[in-house]
Design brief:
The complex is a heterodimer of chains A (186) and B (195).
Chain A (H helix, E strand, L loop, with lengths): L8 H7 L2 E3 H19 L2 H27 L7 H17 L3 E4 L7 E6 L21 H13 L2 E9 L8 E10 L11
Chain B lengths: L23 E3 H18 L3 H26 L9 H17 L5 E4 L6 E6 L21 H13 L4 E8 L8 E8 L1 H11 L1
Antiparallel strand pairs in B: 2-3, 3-5, 4-5
Helix pairs in contact in B: 2-4
The chains are: A alpha+beta (186), B alpha+beta (195).
Main location (chain A): Golgi
Protein name (chain A): Trafficking protein particle complex subunit
Keywords (chain A): ER-Golgi transport, Golgi apparatus, Transport
């Protein structure tokens, strides 16, 4: 059977089961609130959100590869395009755009105009250091690590802190060669 | 660049227009997020009752916000004062908005006057969850029970809400029932209003 070509983010999103974004938004808010009550330190909460995102990302990548039917990306540029156009659309129903490529092609910015995680959210003065959407950076990190890419993700713009959009800077640190879990000789 | 407009910046989140509520995310995104919520809470507690309580607390927060949002958007800021009114609001409107369909059934308890049950063949949150044998009667529906409790408490109908599995003949997965037990004051008030 000939392999099915990669489907567009819109096509996949309309074919999968969906839930109301508000349930998603409110559940995420409940999680952040629980973390803030338990951990109290904003830095700790940031780390915990990133860790949760990482756990989600390592499982999300399987679903992504299965539903989207994409083949191996040729270079990091294609990877970033896939994440922004297909990945975000498939899971969050919004499209992101990729900009600001550096000379090597290893560092870029993913920009989100619309973000279902932050509807109805306002950061109080006591939580100014909080990266509310840090779970997204963990998801991207976890997902790419499962396909042998080590990356670093930082937030450069955040609407909750007064900017006009969400901007994630994704930097490829290295591509790890795939290792077999067993040795041939043994 | 010509033609590219910036999103209007609202300094106050309360000034932003309220969305119509039609935006959707994938079911798997929600399922992953919910599983992280449960896993995180598992690390914070020692026993199942605590875990259920924490999930219920998380759901409570969701429920109180959902009530405000829906009262404003769907009902034009009218307030429910009768018991059946608030129950059918939860059973139809809240369920429809959050889970995409009305709840399977709403029943009045036969043994006690103050008990009502909302049943669902398969709760959305439980769809991808399997409970290991050593966790006994733990039900992640405690999150949904919390949502219902949040809605009822903030609408002025204090109640104790719990989620239970009810095995059904001929079905592999048990049905989930949300049991609502209203406080005395609610019943007294209802009796007074009925006269």
């Amino acid at each position: 059977m000939a392999p099915v070509g990669p489907r567009s983010g819109d096509a996949i999103f309309s074919s999968i089961d969906r839930v109301n974004a508000e349930l998603f938004t409110l559940t995420y808010g409940a999680i952040v609130r629980q973390l803030l009550t338990d951990l109290e330190e904003v830095e700790e909460v940031n780390k915990q959100l990133d860790q949760m995102g990482y756990n989600i990302g390592i499982r999300l990548i399987d679903e992504f590869l299965a539903k989207s039917g994409v083949s191996r990306c040729v270079d990091f540029k294609e990877t970033a395009e896939m994440i922004a156009k297909v990945g975000f659309k498939m899971f969050l129903g919004v499209t992101a755009s990729v900009t600001s490529w550096d000379a090597d092609g290893t560092c870029c910015s993913i920009i989100l105009e619309d973000n279902p995680l932050v509807d109805f959210v306002e950061l109080p003065d006591t939580c100014q250091g909080l990266y509310y959407c840090n779970v997204l950076s963990g998801v991207i990190r976890g997902a790419l690590e499962m396909v042998s890419m080590k990356i670093e993700v930082t937030w450069t713009r955040d609407v909750l802190r007064g900017d006009d959009a969400y901007e994630l800077q994704v930097k490829l640190l290295k591509q790890v060669a795939e290792e077999y879990p067993y040795k041939d000789d043994e | 660049m010509i033609g590219v407009g910036k999103m209007k910046q609202y300094s106050n989140v309360l000034d932003k227009p309220l969305s119509k509520g039609k935006q959707e995310v994938s079911l798997t995104a929600f399922a992953f997020l919910f599983s992280e919520l449960v896993q995180y809470n598992q690390t914070q507690v020692d026993n199942i009752a605590e875990l259920e309580r924490r999930l219920e607390d998380a759901g409570y927060a969701v429920g109180s916000r959902v009530l405000e949002l829906l009262c404003n958007r769907e009902k034009g800021n009218r307030r429910e004062t009768r018991l059946l009114g608030i129950l059918s609001f939860v059973h139809s409107t809240v369920w429809k908005v959050l889970f995409g369909k009305v709840a399977d059934s709403l029943e009045k308890g036969t043994e006690h006057e103050d008990e009502y049950m909302i049943s669902e063949k398969e709760l959305l949150v439980n769809r991808f969850i399997s409970i290991p044998k050593d966790m006994g009667t733990f039900n992640c529906g405690a999150f949904v029970a919390g949502i219902v409790k949040g809605v009822l408490d903030n609408a002025g109908f204090p109640a104790v809400v719990t989620a239970h599995f009810v095995p059904i003949e001929g079905q592999q997965r048990p049905r989930t029932t949300i049991l609502i037990k209203f406080a005395d004051e609610v019943l007294k008030r209802e009796a007074r209003l009925s006269q």
